[in-house]
């Protein structure tokens, strides 16, 4: 701009010179030298040429200035388009130029160089460190590259990779500093994160209790952790670049197979196998292996972990032995053991359930399904016991009747106990059930025995006192019968007196133990004698007797008269159960267990199954004029002979009585 002003003043300067030459004082001299007109024309031409030349120069200067401004704008545009930081600093630290990336980095918006200084206050401390490196560049004249750290107000750091180059002026002096910078914060953080991750992984590798090993594709060890040395006894120096020496020879083929599977991209999880300690001691280990990939996705090795489960295997073995022992006890004991969860699902059922109750074990799915097999009168008490156990978490016992698969009721006693885990939470319940049918029967026999004892004592005290008046009454009634006009009532009285006398005789039989003599007898002949005595009574009641007595029955040891009394009582009961006639079947056969069975079956009215258990009790009878003593005496006689009586009956289907006696070996 100064050159342009000088050129603009040049024409005026020529005009002044021309006027000075052509002044009046100089005119005589000039006129004497040249013709006046010619000289004026020359001077005028010179002045015009000079003026035109100045105009040309001015136009050219303006063009150069425009081109310079255009180049400057283009250059700035190019520099602003660069994503890296670029700025020029004077030797005094003044910012002469900053590009857009640098402006946004320092202040977050586009600012000119003079306005940027105020915006760099937040990086003031970091910039002070930058000035130290600026001075170093000016002193040495060599470019300098280093990573500068700029701390933000929130305490976070931004990392910039800076290159500082000195700029030489026309006098070959360092007049300015060109600074190029690249924001590498993300890269640096990634490096730091990677370093932290690496340190974390290294810490995990060394602190994990599992043995970790890294193996290349050739099966050579590249890295192991400290746990590997503890578990297998080999140091890292002993293993590096060598095949694993812990694999037993007989398992080497298996190990090679799994290694190849992993190299093919498959993962192996929880493979339980055997490995050797350095001392030769075998170890149970759980192996997990996975392939190692490079950046291109190619498998370059195997990462394996081995967990020492030797102690666990030892405990499992002891547990299996213990479980087998207790299972053997549970499956061979007569008590029934059942384990079920809180939701009622059965998890264990001992085989004794099937042998005692008759149902297959797979029928017991849920413990609550068994309630329908419990006697209706006992279900509520069982439900209440279950509720009490769930609420109190205490052991409880309950007795109930359970329906056998054969259709009869079995008396059971169950004790239920909750099972808790280490935290005290109930996880299941265990029921131990015992068949107390025989116990109940023994208790009933004891009760009946006590009753019989009382009856015997009563009979012993009053039987003779009753029989003496009966004898006198019978004598007087017979005298009255011979002289009375109406003899109907005398006959009735004599019949009733005979009945009373029979009852007294049975009472005396209960009261006084009879001296019996057991002898070997044929049960078939005894039955034939009894049936011959009852044949006339059967004909009078329109009853047909059918016999099926096996030939060559084994003999029995018995008191013959007592046996006859038993068979007479049972056959008379059958005849009396068929007042309108029917069929009486008498059978005798040998059983496989060295026993003889005598079966007496009628087609009478039958007995309600619920009343059968009470048959044989003193004074309990199903007949209108019965006393209940006949069957009781018969049962006692059979039991004294080592046998038993079983009664089955259905209403309107008749009754079957089985007398089973021990037979002599042939």
Automatic annotation (TrEMBL):
<dbReference type="Pfam" id="PF08448">
    <property type="entry name" value="PAS_4"/>
</dbReference>
<feature type="domain" description="PAC">
    <location>
        <begin position="396"/>
        <end position="448"/>
    </location>
</feature>
<dbReference type="InterPro" id="IPR013656">
    <property type="entry name" value="PAS_4"/>
</dbReference>
<keyword id="KW-0418">Kinase</keyword>
<dbReference type="GO" id="GO:0000155">
    <property type="term" value="F:phosphorelay sensor kinase activity"/>
</dbReference>
<keyword id="KW-0472">Membrane</keyword>
<dbReference type="InterPro" id="IPR004358">
    <property type="entry name" value="Sig_transdc_His_kin-like_C"/>
</dbReference>
<dbReference type="Pfam" id="PF00512">
    <property type="entry name" value="HisKA"/>
</dbReference>
<dbReference type="Pfam" id="PF02518">
    <property type="entry name" value="HATPase_c"/>
</dbReference>
<dbReference type="InterPro" id="IPR035965">
    <property type="entry name" value="PAS-like_dom_sf"/>
</dbReference>
<dbReference type="InterPro" id="IPR036097">
    <property type="entry name" value="HisK_dim/P_sf"/>
</dbReference>
<feature type="domain" description="PAC">
    <location>
        <begin position="140"/>
        <end position="196"/>
    </location>
</feature>
<keyword id="KW-0808">Transferase</keyword>
<feature type="domain" description="Histidine kinase">
    <location>
        <begin position="461"/>
        <end position="665"/>
    </location>
</feature>
<feature type="domain" description="PAS">
    <location>
        <begin position="197"/>
        <end position="266"/>
    </location>
</feature>
<feature type="domain" description="PAS">
    <location>
        <begin position="71"/>
        <end position="106"/>
    </location>
</feature>
<keyword id="KW-0597">Phosphoprotein</keyword>
<feature type="domain" description="PAC">
    <location>
        <begin position="267"/>
        <end position="321"/>
    </location>
</feature>
<dbReference type="InterPro" id="IPR005467">
    <property type="entry name" value="His_kinase_dom"/>
</dbReference>
<dbReference type="InterPro" id="IPR003594">
    <property type="entry name" value="HATPase_dom"/>
</dbReference>
<dbReference type="InterPro" id="IPR000700">
    <property type="entry name" value="PAS-assoc_C"/>
</dbReference>
<dbReference type="InterPro" id="IPR001610">
    <property type="entry name" value="PAC"/>
</dbReference>
<dbReference type="GO" id="GO:0005524">
    <property type="term" value="F:ATP binding"/>
</dbReference>
<dbReference type="InterPro" id="IPR000014">
    <property type="entry name" value="PAS"/>
</dbReference>
<dbReference type="Pfam" id="PF08447">
    <property type="entry name" value="PAS_3"/>
</dbReference>
<dbReference type="InterPro" id="IPR003661">
    <property type="entry name" value="HisK_dim/P_dom"/>
</dbReference>
<dbReference type="InterPro" id="IPR036890">
    <property type="entry name" value="HATPase_C_sf"/>
</dbReference>
<keyword id="KW-0067">ATP-binding</keyword>
<keyword id="KW-1133">Transmembrane helix</keyword>
<keyword id="KW-0902">Two-component regulatory system</keyword>
<protein>
    <recommendedName>
        <fullName>histidine kinase</fullName>
        <ecNumber>2.7.13.3</ecNumber>
    </recommendedName>
</protein>
<feature type="transmembrane region" description="Helical">
    <location>
        <begin position="36"/>
        <end position="58"/>
    </location>
</feature>
<keyword id="KW-0547">Nucleotide-binding</keyword>
<keyword id="KW-0812">Transmembrane</keyword>
<feature type="domain" description="PAS">
    <location>
        <begin position="322"/>
        <end position="393"/>
    </location>
</feature>
<dbReference type="InterPro" id="IPR013655">
    <property type="entry name" value="PAS_fold_3"/>
</dbReference>
